[in-house]
Design a protein that fits this description.
By secondary structure, the protein is of the alpha+beta class. It has helices spanning 2-14, 27-31, 37-41, 44-48, 50-55, 104-109, and strands at residues 58-60, 69-79, 82-90, 93-98, 113-118, 121-134, 141-151, 160-169. The protein is globular.
């Protein structure tokens, strides 16, 4: 009887990782800001449950930075022209952790605006999308924003963090939302 119970585990161990991947989640597109807030929301259950990450072929890593949940991918992906097998999620952001000691060349290639560059810390970004949307459940006016960023962080020396932040924000008080169809400041990178 024990061998019958083990069969599904043995079968699972021999199947390729892609057999467990959720085809609805396009990880490279999310990291490269080619998706929207609703696509990013599909990651919430994964961030909340390490077993769901494992089912996708992501191995949860010890938390080296208190602000990020990190994962090692069983199958590397290509983002921004670089191979990556290490990703992280922090709040409404998802980034690839790239083996690039200097983030500046990538930021320049992606035409990002430098926000900070001093004391060994670098941050650059660009808002790719800002549009007014209406919450289907509440009818509330919101601003959907997609921001591409490149940075470094002391917890990951010699690495570059590159990825995307997806957010829904309430318009500032006294600020009337524009047409619900929205406006795009720039097209996301290819």
């Amino acid at each position: 009887m024990p061998t019958i119970r083990l069969f599904p585990l043995l079968l699972a161990a021999t199947l390729p990782t892609a057999a467990f991947a959720d085809p609805a989640i396009d990880l490279p597109a999310l990291i490269e800001c080619r998706q929207g807030v609703s696509d990013f929301a599909a990651l919430a259950p994964i961030a909340a449950d390490p077993l769901k990450a494992v089912a996708l072929g992501w191995r949860p890593l010890p938390q080296g930075n208190l602000f990020m949940n990190e994962y090692m991918l069983n199958t590397p992906l290509t983002v921004f022209g670089h191979s990556a097998d290490h990703i992280a999620m922090a709040g409404s952001s998802i980034v690839a952790i790239l083996d690039l000691a200097d983030p500046r060349p990538l930021a320049k290639t992606l035409e990002l605006e430098t926000g900070y560059d001093a004391d060994g810390k670098f941050m650059a970004g660009r808002e790719l999308l800002s549009r007014d949307v209406i919450d289907a459940r509440t009818g509330e006016a919101l601003i959907e924003s997609v921001i591409l960023s490149v940075s470094n962080v002391k917890s990951h020396p010699g690495k570059t963090l590159a990825g995307c932040t997806y957010s829904l924000d309430i318009p500032a008080e006294g600020e009337a939302p524009a047409a619900a169809s929205g406006t795009s400041k720039d097209a996301p990178p290819a």
